[in-house]
UniProtKB/TrEMBL annotation:
UniProt keyword terms in alphabetical order: Coiled coil, FAD, Flavoprotein, Monooxygenase, Oxidoreductase
Originating organism: Paraphaeosphaeria sporulosa
Protein name as catalogued: FAD/NAD(P)-binding domain-containing protein
InterPro entries hit by this protein: FAD-bd, FAD/NAD-bd_sf
Coiled coil regions in record: 393-424
tRNA-binding is among the record's keywords: no
Pfam families (UniProt xref): FAD_binding_3 (PF01494)
Location of the FAD-binding domain: 7-337
Length: 447
């Protein structure tokens, strides 16, 4: 039986998850990625996958057990330090009050491990590397809306649906909206310290098994341990967008750049915080961009977006990959239902109705992405606060109190229901006794 021709642009977690979901439900597709292979560039740090989001998507993909084999539950812990080294929170040792329960069930996994798991699950020939997209154009001729993909060295024609999973600077997004990412106000450097246990064991212990935040006044060192023994640190602060070119740092010299960066911006931070940058093997400037909160577009048949292409966020709430994989899950399941109920019944009419699942997905995604976007913006302003890390602890304490109040409310409601049920039972018992007595009297007369 024929199937719609679907092309996915971008082999990140969102695009790979969608491809896997489509294939296991009998819908063939292709992924086109600009990289030359899966190891062509550094894939970044690790990701925390939430139970109701990315983990659910992996269950639907049939990959949950493989995920558990590489997931690091020990990486869920958080440390928060003041710049002078005073510790405010250490979930690993039990110092301070843990974050709210909503942060539970979020094990870490290295981004490369997640991608490998998804790539290896795809049918051979699905993922086409070395395809740098230049443009998406409407196919010439034909009676239905189809699209051709123009790459650097080739053209792939006749797609019924093109899904842009091509990240922050998406080429597919141009066909749906004029909106481009906007600067978030946060800038700084991305530094990678390899084999930290061999370099500085005391510093490694300071970082711990999960995330380690050193929060100053609008200036931070945000560190996270990866599964390969490296620690990724981000020296982020509130800076102008053109900071990289106007700060006066010589980026051509790795060692010089690290020293100049620390000397300029980390006065008052202790040596441990500084050394997470100074001892790094790699460092690069990294401005943070985002799409405006509540960003939407008018639906266009045969085109849609998932992941960062649809709703780019900064990483400060730790939800980006989860929203992206939820996008893939939502779109994949809607396309599965549409193919079964519409396309398979009438392929000739099916293409024109592909607007149904994609439009429904977009409306659902817009609301979900806006909620996650607001949460991310809130956390950005907690990470970069003039009072350092204490406002974040106050936020956690308030959220935990709300959880306790909600739990108490649920107990009270359950108690009321139980009391009501018992009262009804007691009311019914006399009636049953009376009926029994009447029946006994009638039996005696009859005898």
């Amino acid at each position: 039986m024929s199937s719609p021709r679907i092309g996915i642009i971008g082999a990140g977690p969102a695009g790979l998850t969608l491809a896997r979901l489509l294939q296991i439900n009998g819908i063939p597709c292709f992924i086109f990625d600009l990289e030359q292979d899966r190891y062509a560039r550094d894939q970044g740090g690790c990701l925390d996958l939430h139970e109701g989001a990315a983990q659910r998507a992996l269950r639907e993909c049939g990959l949950y057990d493989q995920f558990l084999a590489v997931a690091r539950t020990e990486g869920e812990v958080l440390k928060i330090y003041e710049p002078n080294g005073t510790i405010l929170l250490d979930e690993g040792s039990g110092y301070g009050e843990r974050r709210p329960d909503s942060f539970n069930g979020r094990p870490e996994v290295d981004r490369q491990q997640l991608k490998d798991m998804l790539i290896d699950s795809l049918a051979p020939g699905t993922l086409k590397y070395g395809h740098k997209l230049f443009a998406v154009k409407t196919s010439v001729g034909g009676t239905s809306q189809k699209y051709d993909l123009h790459f650097e060295h080739s053209v792939e024609i006749g797609f019924d649906l093109v899904v842009g999973a091509d990240g922050a600077w998406s080429k597919v997004r141009h066909l749906l909206t004029d909106q481009r990412p906007v600067y978030s106000g946060i800038n700084g450097v991305d530094a990678k310290l390899c084999s930290i246990d061999n370099v500085d064991l005391a510093l490694s212990r300071r970082v711990g098994q999960g995330m380690c935040l050193t929060l100053g006044s609008n200036t931070t060192v945000l560190s996270q341990r990866n599964g390969d023994g490296c620690v990724r640190s981000y020296g982020f602060m509130r800076l102008p967008e053109d900071w990289q070119t106007t700060c006066g740092i010589d980026w051509s010299s790795h060692e010089t750049a690290k020293k100049e960066f620390i000397e300029k911006y980390y006065d008052g931070f202790n040596d441990d915080a500084k050394n997470l940058i100074l001892l790094a093997d790699e460092m690069a400037p990294r401005p943070m961009y985002m799409l405006p909160l509540g960003h939407r577009w008018a639906h266009r048949q045969g085109l849609t977006l998932i992941g960062d292409a649809a709703h780019l966020m900064t990483p400060f709430a730790g939800v980006g990959v989860n929203v992206a994989m939820e996008d893939a899950l939502s779109l994949g399941l809607k396309l599965k239902q549409w193919k079964r109920e519409v396309w398979d019944q009438s392929p000739e009419q099916g293409v024109s109705t592909i607007i149904q699942p994609t439009s429904a997905y977009e409306q659902e995604m817009f609301a979900r992405a806006e909620a996650y976007g607001k949460e991310t913006w809130m956390y950005l302003n907690l990470f970069f606060h003039e009072k350092g890390g204490r406002p974040m602890l106050e936020h956690f304490a308030k959220a935990k109190e709300q959880e306790r109040e909600q739990a108490q409310k649920q107990v009270e409601e359950q108690t009321k229901k139980l009391v009501k049920t018992e009262a009804l039972t007691q009311e019914e018992e006399p009636c049953l006794t009376q009926v029994t007595l009447v029946e006994s009297k009638e039996e005696a007369i009859a005898q």
